[in-house]
Amino acid sequence: MKTLVIAPHPDDELLGCGGTLLRRSAEGGTVGWLLMTAITEQGGWSPERIDERAGEIERVREGLGVATQHHYSLGFPTAELDQVPMSTLVARVSEVVRDFQPEEVLLPHPGDAHSDHRSTFEAASACTKWFRYPSVQRVLTYETLSETDAGLDPFRAFQPTVFVDISAYLEKKRALMRVYASEMGAFPFPRSDEALHALARVRGAQVGFEAAEAFRLLRERI
User: Fold this and answer.
1) Band of the pLDDT at 131, cuts 50, 70, 90?
2) 170-177 and 47-64 are packed helices; what angle lies between their axes, rounded to 10 degrees?
3) Which fold has domain 2-220?
């Protein structure tokens, strides 16, 4: 199986589906990773921090088993995706989907609090139409700690329908998440090691696994 995760920011791919991506790689699948945004000097980031972030992304890429040619970065300024024309976002995501030819696409939840997540979902979902992107067989959304749980729209609440057993991969997911040290905080901050572990255990308990990641199935062609 070829799985493409589309992440607004570095860390979303791990928070939402790091265990699933590790499992796909371990089972012989091909994993692709599309990052929508990047930090830049124009955005107020220092060259040292930009280099540090690039190193973090590289370590996570290697840890997830993503080949260099299957890691894509569009480089849009972080926290500004809603200022980019949707036609531009769709065109750039379309290039990646056509190049990678995924069977499974993992997207952020459209009800997330961060506007980058919502823009990513809108642009990426347009690139899953069967008649334009026939490789895509399954589309799911993932939950992102600190964003999905912070969404307040009651009509767009995350309601999972698919649970992936990540019992064998939870510890590696936690270790990889620690690579993004600046994004982590002390519990009860949602992006904390304790919260990540607790969510995996709760999702697992809902379906009889030691640990799981939850997704909402949007479309599947069988």
Assistant:
1) very high
2) 170
3) Rossmann fold (3.40.50)
pLDDT digits (tens, 9 = 90+) for 85-107: 999 999 999 999 999 999 999 99
Average pLDDT, the chain: 97
Q: What is the Cα–Cα distance from 18 to 63, expressed in whole angstroms? A: 10
Q: What is the number of other CB atoms lying within 10 angstroms of the CB of residue 61? A: 19
- Cα–Cα distances in Å, from 94 out to 17, 180, 206, 217? 22, 28, 35, 21
d(CA 164, CA 176): 18
Q: Confidence class of residue 3 from pLDDT cuts 50, 70 and 90?
A: very high
Q: What is the DSSP string of the chain?
A: -EEEEEESSTTHHHHHHHHHHHHHHHTT-EEEEEEEEE--TTTT--HHHHHHHHHHHHHHHHHHT--GGGEEEEEEETT-GGGS-HHHHHHHHHHHHHHH--SEEEEE-TT-SSHHHHHHHHHHHGGG-TTT-TT--EEEEE--TTTTTT---GGG-----EEEE-TTTHHHHHHHHTTSGGG--STTSSSSHHHHHHHHHHHHHHHT-SSEEEEEEEEE--
Q: Quick check: 161 and 217 in contact, CB under 8 A? A: yes
**Domain ranges across the chain:** 2-220
- For 71, the token pair is 């890691």
